Amino acid sequence: MPFDMPIAELLAGRLLAEPPATASTDDELVPDWAPLEPFSRPPTPAAVLIGLVRRPEGHTVLYTERSPDLRSHSGQVAFPGGKIDASDLHAGAAALREAYEEVGLLTHEANVLGYMEPYFTGSNYLITPVVAEVFPSGPFVPNPGEVHSVFEVPLRRILDSASYGHFRIKRGGKEHVTWQIDHDGHIIWGITANLTRKFRDLVLGEVEA
Fold it and tell me: What's the first-to-final CA gap in the chain, in angstroms?
């Protein structure tokens, strides 16, 4: 793995240069898990920031632990992100706006490197992962209304296949399996772990396992 290569150069040609289309009525979209009832509306466009934080010891990947008071996915680990608002120019703008609202990441501290293919969820969200190199001028500060804590995982660990296990959960009597990463007491699973694994496979040029 050429870690001496700048991350932007390493990812060149592996990311989409422009945000992909987020509005879709494509019946061929397959969610990560099948809901009990068919969707009655088009998927909701959303974006998340896969922030590659530049640290003296090497890049890390930025994660948040959601507030336990939130109605949806409370207490779970997530990338900064959320719905794409009508006022957002595109997925990249939405991801950076959410990162500022959630952890205080200033827009000029992030250099967007590109976009991954959208990820369709069983909760009917079409998520665009936005990959950016982050140069923080200070500590990340969690917004207590949305985020309980902020933490970072070394990129080297994210790229190591040995870091990944499987998380099993039952929905509607059916078992679903996602990737899982344990890091310093944080359990990354579900959509966030699946997106992390997709990013890992993209960086290494490997076919999704």
Answer: 19
